What does this fold into?
Amino acid sequence: MSRKNFGSKTWLYPMPVLIVAAYGKDGKPNAMNAAWGGIYTDNTIGVCIAESHKTTQDILASGAFTVSMATADRVIACDYVGIVSGNREPGKFAKAGFHAVKSEFVNAPLIAELPMALECELLSYDKESNFMTGKIVNVSADEDILGSDGQIDVARLKPIVYDPVHHTYLKIGDKAGTAFSDGKQLR
Amino acid sequence: MSRKNFGSKTWLYPMPVLIVAAYGKDGKPNAMNAAWGGIYTDNTIGVCIAESHKTTQDILASGAFTVSMATADRVIACDYVGIVSGNREPGKFAKAGFHAVKSEFVNAPLIAELPMALECELLSYDKESNFMTGKIVNVSADEDILGSDGQIDVARLKPIVYDPVHHTYLKIGDKAGTAFSDGKQLR
It folds into this structure.
């Protein structure tokens, strides 16, 4: 084994592309793009978002947020909300082509154009690490992306992956195996 | 928009397949499979692993761990270490077909068969949430998975994604877009 050492890097495969959305004090929706995060513990999500972001301030004020999965179908919009600050562009959400629909469960906007989202209540925000945690109150998905079993079909959802080395977004491909099953042959 | 509500679920796309490894007090390597986690903040990783796992106990004792990316080429071994407990099967690491090589940077084993890993020093473990954080001291990758630019090539690494709805492992596919770039056209 000959390995190359890259030093201390914030790299992982796969990294998610999480579109975090909240309502501002004026009732207008805002959204941002975050790759640092994942499931925190049972029914909770954790995501690292800087305190200066408008979305962060909106979540701290409203106590709620949604996390939509970025999709291959909306990659331009999902990248746009990661490039442009809501502090400087008040029309950011609409300019992305997003339409807000209020969550039935929390005081935060779902994004009509992104077909799967976690609807969350704010649990904690640590100003040192910028790590925010939220309780996943509900997961909702557009009927269009459900398979014949009534469950989310990843091939229809088309979530994207962030490649932190080449700064590209990647699609998800074919099945590689079955969890809690393939490994049994080594027992 | 017609959405189906699934209630409180621990679902996200993409979820990683993280192979967390550490040395036991006897110097023997152990490894487990974790999907709950991601980047925590700059140069740190966070992963949720139950206190009862042998690997958790080994990390708490040794103060170090590695996180290798599970790959399509080793899906059987990566699933196996998620099914079988190191507390009941002392030969788990070898039975998976894994060979340990000590990290140059931390007191934890790299896995020769998994070509990319984060080498980490334990920062914190919270017994309430089971959330562990580690400082990424080094990222290393096998020369075989580097592209002509000397960087990690995701097409050679072949990391897998966990689908929490159907309990399958998925490959990563083609490019969907370019980060910090595609969105500029909406400015």
